[in-house]
Amino acid sequence: MRIKAAVLETMELPRPYARSKPLAIEEVELDPPGEGEVLVRIAAAGLCHSDLSVINGDRPRPLPLVLGHEAAGVVEATGPGVHDLAPGDHVVIVFVASCGRCSACLEGRPALCAPAYRANSAGTLLSGARRLRRNGAPLNHHMGCSVFAEYAVVARGALVPVDPAIPLEQAALFGCAVLTGVGAVLNTAGVRPGQRVAVVGLGGVGLNAVMGARLAGARQIVAVDLRDDKLALARQLGASDAVHAGAGDAVERLRALTEGGVDAAIEAVGSIPALEFAYAVTRRGGVTVTAGIAHPDRRIAIPQVSLVAEERTLRGSYMGSCVPVRDIPRYMALMQQGRLPVDALLCERLGFEELNEAFDRLAEGRTVRQILLPHG
Questions:
Q1: What's the CA gap between 359 and 355, in Å, rounded?
Q2: Residue 169: pLDDT band by 50, 70, 90 thresholds?
Q3: What's the predicted TM-score (pTM) here?
């Protein structure tokens, strides 16, 4: 079938993207689903900083590719071997397609699925196939998803069925922002009731981390960002305190606010200075979690003695250390109860022609979650 899609041909084009136009809106070919694959009509796709990291070259991927990795939609057709989904089912697409058989999946850590990692790095689906073509030549898949498109073929292991009563615009955010932010707090950091938490960086992931800290029963949640409007939104979502990261005494101020530092600091930017800030405000015996992705050449230097003498922990969190088939339904139930107000993060609704300008807004930090509506 022929579909409209956003194709990235070249990374590291200069900003503003509204002028350089890294994303070309083109008509491409999409092959039918193969063994263990599903055709999904994309209803809504979120613009995430991880997409921006491919556009600006911080996260190199095989090119050309159809971008996008956070979405929800409706099943159109299933390939051979898929018996537990049917046309009309509502699904969330997850950017790591669990194989269910590798050692990581068997240990309950599907975010580290080895076959999915190899496939995502190579620009293929879990099967190793590419179902996208342009003028007969193959196009790469982004994270096994490629959801900046009218339709997508994805592996069955990348789909989580969801309640059709949930608006698909909201459901889309559960594929990345909610999983990563809430999961970083509940799963990776293991925040317990009564602990103090700092969240550094208040994009879609960071604001979900704020909500996750509230769900965990944190007694103090300190939001940190460079923008006053995001600090205000974080307070609305449950932060008890706010610290402007641009203040010269920001570290000292936060440590004073929390009587010496926080039990858990969540860095949600993908910035080395932000991670260093998060580590600096973590108390003795605490955990610093980084959920953002910086360029692979970037390095962090920390005093080794602090890890030992202060029993500190520095942890990475990929996909919120989640088990999507377990956690997405749980988090959606919390949203339905009014305890996880994901709809507060939704900003602009976009068409294809607005994507490049939308990534300018994201790069400048002027938005939280913009949503592409491929079918208008």
A1: 6
A2: very high
A3: 0.97
* Residue 259, phi-psi category: left (phi > 0), alpha (psi -120 to 50), beta (remainder): left
Is 24 in contact with 148 (CB distance < 8 Å)?
no
Exposure on the CB side of residue 125, measured as CA atoms within 13 A: 28
Query: For 59-79, b where at least 16 C-beta lie within 10 A, e where not — what string?
Result: bebeebbbbbbbbbbebbbbb
The CATH number fitting domain 181-318, selected from 3.60.15.10, 3.40.50.720, 3.30.565.10, 1.10.10.10: 3.40.50.720
What is the distance between the alpha carbons of residues 91 and 85, in angstroms, rounded to a whole number? 9
Q: Maximum Cα–Cα distance for the chain, whole Å? A: 62
**Residue 376 pLDDT > 90:** no
Rounded Cα distance between 96 and 324, Å, is 9
Q: How far apart are CA 253 and CA 260, in angstroms?
A: 10
Closest CA to 238 of 365, 343, 341: 341
